[in-house]
Amino acid sequence: MKPQMVKKLLMSQIKTIADNAKSFCIDSERNFSRKRKLSMEKVITG
Questions:
Q1: What is the pLDDT of residues 1-46, one digit of tens each?
Q2: In terms of Cα–Cα distance, which of 10, 33, 3 is closest to 21?
Q3: d(CA 3, CA 21)
Q4: What Å distances lie between residue 39 and 4, 5, 19, CA to CA?
Q5: Do the Cβ atoms of 17 and 40 come closer than 8 Å?
Q6: pTM of the model
Q7: If exposure means fewest CB atoms within 10 Å of the residue's CB, which of 1, 7, 40, 45 is most exposed?
Q8: 15: Cβ–Cβ under 8 A, 6 or more apart, which residues?
């Protein structure tokens, strides 16, 4: 696989996780529920 393809796959999986944040948070009612400067996607990607 080319590096660009790996990055594309990784970013798509991170987006999928960020879109379903409630499934991956301990306290799904409060964690990543507000609009913040850093979204879950940015926190994961660094």
A1: 899 999 999 999 999 988 888 888 888 777 767 777 777 788 888 8
A2: 33
A3: 27
A4: 23, 24, 11
A5: yes
A6: 0.69
A7: 1
A8: 41
